[in-house]
Amino acid sequence: MPVLHHPSTEEIELVDVLAALGHPVRLEIAQALASGEERFCGEILPDESRSSMTHHWRALRESGVIYQRRSGRKLYLTLRRGDLDVRFPGLLDLVLDHHHRPGAK
Amino acid sequence: MPVLHHPSTEEIELVDVLAALGHPVRLEIAQALASGEERFCGEILPDESRSSMTHHWRALRESGVIYQRRSGRKLYLTLRRGDLDVRFPGLLDLVLDHHHRPGAK
User: Fold this and answer.
1) Does a structural domain hold residue B63?
2) Cα–Cα 20 to 30 A to B79, which of A45, A99, B41, B45?
3) A96 CA to chain B: closest CA distance, Å?
4) What is the CATH number of the domain that holds A74?
5) What is the pLDDT of residues A45-88, one digit of tens each?
């Protein structure tokens, strides 16, 4: 299986993070990972098609928003909160807090 | 000439703003308007093609990031800082400050 590439903390670029989070499904995924706990990818938005989710995982991983870990045939995901907080202090909290507010989209 | 549609403050959605700013040219435009002053669109990134810029103005306007005013055959642009600060307090400062830092992208 191919190695999953993750940018280093210093390689994470603001414009890529904004583009990754600038999609309703990907914003939802970030929200689902907001607690910081690692989650099995199949648990998150199970009603979306697998190919669409594969595309979104990749956009989030390559921009540096999530970390993907393979274990056997399963993929586990974590939000890279620490790295994002180092690079863009406050951005993630601001985005997740807003998204979480009742009535906010 | 068609009326330029601008979303009202309440209609501005986080995901649309993130998507609009998640592009290097559009981030650059927002930076060029950061002072808050209205600018003639031809002054901003004059080396980019007109059709590409038209696409970017539209993405920024429809998401609620900029206000476009037509005067004769010219378009003038302003950053909707007040509206964005009401909807997503701190987001614009965070994005523009980071982008402005030497070496930051």
Assistant:
1) yes
2) A99
3) 10
4) 1.10.10.10
5) 988 898 899 999 999 999 999 999 999 989 999 999 999 999 99
